Amino acid sequence: MGRDREVAALGGALAKPPAVVLIDGEAGIGKSRLLREFLASQAERGCRVVVGACPELRVPYTLGAVVDAVRDGVGSVSGLRLSGLGGALRPLFPEWADDLPPAPEPLEDATAARHRLFRAFVEVFSRLDVGVLVLEDVHWADEATLEFLLFLVSRRPQPVSVVVTYRREEVPPDSLLLRLTSRLPADAHLVRLTLKPLGIGDTAAFVSSMLADDHVSAEFAAFLHARTEGIPLAVEESVRLMHDRADLIRQDGGWARRRLDRIEVPPTIRDAMLERVGRLPHDTRTVLYAVSVLSGPADYVTLKAVTGLPEDRFTAQAADALGCGLLHEAGPGQWSFRHSLACHAVYEAMPAHERRAMHLRAGRALEGRPLQPVAQLARHFRLAGDVEASCRYTEQAADLSTQSGDVATAALLLHSLVTSVALPAEPLVRLVMKIQFQALSGSDPYSKIIDSLQSALGSQALTPEQQALVRFQIGRVLMVAGEIEAGRLEILRAVPHLAPDALEAARARTLLALPLGNARPVSEHLRWLHEAPAVALSIAPHHRLLLSVERAFALLMLGEEDGWTAAWQIPDEPADPRAASIVAAGHTNVGEEAMRWGRYDEAAERLAKALVLAERYELLDCFDSIASSQAHLDWFTGAWAGLADRAERLLNDDDRVRLKDRCEAALVAGLLQAAAGDRDEARERLRFAGRDDQQRIEAAAALAQLCLRDGDVDEALRLTEGPSESTVGTGIWPRAVEVTPVRVAALVAAGRLGRAADLVTAFEHAVGDKDAQAPQASLVLCRAILAQAEGRLADAAVLFADAATAWEGLPRPYDALLAREHHAHCLLADGRHEAGLPVLSDVLRGLSALGAHNDADRVARFLNGRGWDTQARGRGRPSYGDRLSPRELAVARLLVGGRTNREIAEVLVVSTQTVASQLKSAMRKLRVTSRTALAIRVVELGLTGEQGRSPAADE
Fold first, then answer.
1. pTM recorded for the entire structure
2. Contact yes or no for 313/283 (Cβ under 8 A)
3. What is the C-alpha separation between 624 and 603, in angstroms, rounded?
4. 531-573, pLDDT tens digit by residue?
5. In whole angstroms, what is the distance from residue 762 CA to residue 779 CA?
6. Distance in angstroms (rounded) separating the CA atoms of residues 864 and 854
7. Torsions phi, psi for 386 (to 5 deg)
8. How far is Cα 421 from Cα 359, in angstroms, rounded to an integer?
9. How far apart are CA 321 and CA 391, in angstroms?
10. How far apart, in whole angstroms, are the C-alpha atoms of residue 135 and residue 149?
């Protein structure tokens, strides 16, 4: 009722196959009813349709909804003469083993294996002439099912029409479902249907259809519409409840209510359902409870076992339950609730003791099946309180998920178990070790695991070695969660009692080697790393990989060049799905350290590799870590377009994004705001960034820089003292890149030149001759700041120019421009105005183009004060066309005077390469091919006079 337009649109789409139909609407709006009634008519026309539904609970095998659709709609593949591809279906359809080809050779690449499976399904559809694949509740679909849908709609020709239903409000923002339409080829036939609530007239017609098409009073229809908001399920349940309570009466040949002011209709669907259930006999309610416990289609035998009722009572009450209107036949001999809301309402209304007993009976009934549904068994035994069985089946389900490439489901299953069941220490430690945190969503997957481990430590009688294993896991998870010092303390307490050749013994020392938290000498961290014992040969390959990845990360953080040799051993492709998160995290971490070393190309390459793996293996947490690291890299390299929006999106998503990634996004947002001049907002963002140990030092440096610009030297000194001591003071130079120049500037501003010189010397000693471009550039900048403070202006000008050149080579344009600004001021202070002002003009142009408007305004004010015209500079980078830029003009004038490139470079305090580049550009613009011809052309054009004002705009 009230869906004529949608029915027509659906019919029109499927009449022109292949089509893609997306049906969305809130719970209870009638998506399933629309489909059932429409597809019944399609079946009469001979169109073969397979229908599946995505359960709310995730399942431990790939393509669960598609498997159910094929199994229910096909029955058998006997006689189809499938190609060898069909053998890939064997793990999913063991009951078809006699009719399927032999299993193909296993593929190491999970993506290739999954696509082979997709092609096998398509072949089955083709051989059986399936015309339409319908999947309901796709907002609950696993990633593999969504990938299969993308695979189907992107093929040409599209093998089947696809119809999906979903609730838009429950689709995660990073779901592949949102990409379903973006992958469609240009010739695809797409129809979107959004179901809306019924109007008053349609409500009256709907109720009338439930009451043998008798007339319904307008007053009653309006009342019911107001109380149900036109949601069909709410209308239906309210009418059924009122009918059960005899609140509907015949009046003037139609139906009406009793006195409107005397009858109370429950305002929610749940209330209506529960009141209806409460009016049923006890045994009938027991049947409904059993169906809700099973939470999906249930057969007669299983349902009877779960109720615990004798045969005669069950048979009678099962018929009553089916007739009460809450259940329907989901398939031959399969019963389920007509709507998930009803299922949830009944389940939550069950007495707790009865719910546990039914889950136990459900588990025991399902254990007897030839093909055990291990995920369902894990759930039932967990909710029944059977620790041993729930642990066994959860681990089996997680292993199956991992083997199929679905590491996200594996992590979810394990996390749910260890955080909801009080496990003995041994299985608890083993399962926590298997959880891949990168595959879990949510902002804090750690706290509940830590609570479970601490509870086991405090409540169970454990040997010293068992205590050590639990403590190590507590410390490890604390460190991952950002509680560095608390985690270190637990690991330190565990180390003496860990078996020497155990994996945990090696990992504990590697984690202690990481220079995180409070300041410690680099030698102490290296000692822990060198003490890490060799692990037993029995250690699994992916655990060995984990150790090597963590070791490479530690070496790079400590500034050891051997770390790059170790990092190059990280594979691009994992050997199996279990190794995927290790490899992805390894590339992400190496990318972070490559940024600290100034190897930005390496950083970009590592992050790109990590992203490929995250997408392939659904490593949910990795997406945000990669995104925040990429934002950080883009800040350094000057890729600022859209960067503020990307950083803010990560920062503001506190429900989904981990704190460490939000802090890195906050750092980038704060740096951008500082460059734009929004200092108050920048300070807020930078203080938030400092909550994470990895961003703490850079955030402190940025805050101190703001203080120096405001003249608050004391606060700048306070902010940089600790970070300087924990980096340069300990010899851990990779983290000193950002803070050391600010610390030197603060000491200089405070008149402590001796302390500043000592710091520069210590930094130089720590960095040495390491092949680390960013620290080396930072060191040159520190020397320049010190030279300027000591009055050595010529030396300072050269050093600032060298620093700028070093930053440009990374590239790191913002820092290069700021160094050029200091270079120019040193030239001006040394009386070389002709050289200094064009440099400042170049800096102004670069800062404006980059978007650093606060810095650009500062430079513009200075230039205006010197009579330099900046009014037409704009905010972008204008082109001079065939006119010489101020810098090119300065170089050309010196050329006319007979200077060599080296002499010109000395006068302008730039490199000879820069002079050669500008001469080449000048010759191109003035259309000459030699230095002599350029000098003659400059004289002919009258450009040899005194430097007046710059052109109206800057380069």
1. 0.64
2. yes
3. 16
4. 988 767 778 888 899 999 999 999 999 999 999 999 999 999 8
5. 10
6. 15
7. -85, 95
8. 15
9. 34
10. 10
